[in-house]
Amino acid sequence: MRVLLVEDDKELGDMIKRVLSAEGYEVEWVQDGFLALKNLSEKDYDLLLLDLMLPRFDGIKICKKVRESKDIPILVITARGQIEDKVEVLQAGADDYITKPFSFKELLARIQAVMRRYKRTEDIIRVGELIINLASHEVIYKGNKINLTKREFELLKLLSQEAGRVVSREEIYRKVWGYSHEEGSNIVDVYIKNLRSKLGDRPAKLIQTVRGYGYKLNVENVS
Fold first, then answer.
1. What is the pLDDT of residue 174?
2. Where does the OmpR/PhoB-type domain lie (predicted)?
């Protein structure tokens, strides 16, 4: 699980990173709000662990900014213990908070609790008007049910899970077909054409071709 840790206290940040890494988390650590927003705009994370008192952008502003575009668990680390401060944190979009000083046992427990709450809804992928139910294999686009073959469904699921990122043909072959790309094969292009036809994506605005590389679900044109 990928965690973005935003903490300007070097000693605390180093300790948190070491504890989470020992538990199997993949941790990226930045020490100011500007770098936090930059990383969040460029990468996907499973959890945002966020201090409030930060250089350049504070935690409240980051929470609000993240909630404009991302559905990611946010656990705030705060030294503010007043009820008003905690309410402000939750209203800004955080899922939970932990007050300093804290034990790492409590931190791990709160992370696990937050992730359990998100796991309950992970069977649904929503990208604009595109809804994919992973449990029932149902696809709804612009209010219409779309009937897909198993392979078409897996291809659309992959593009949706990586929405906004270009997915190479090699990665598509490996994750959808289970083997490496065969030179000269155009099977991915055929399936993309079928998906576009069934979704009514003509001209192609939802599934964008990136010439010489692969495809991406274009989040700017999903509605």
1. 85
2. 122-219
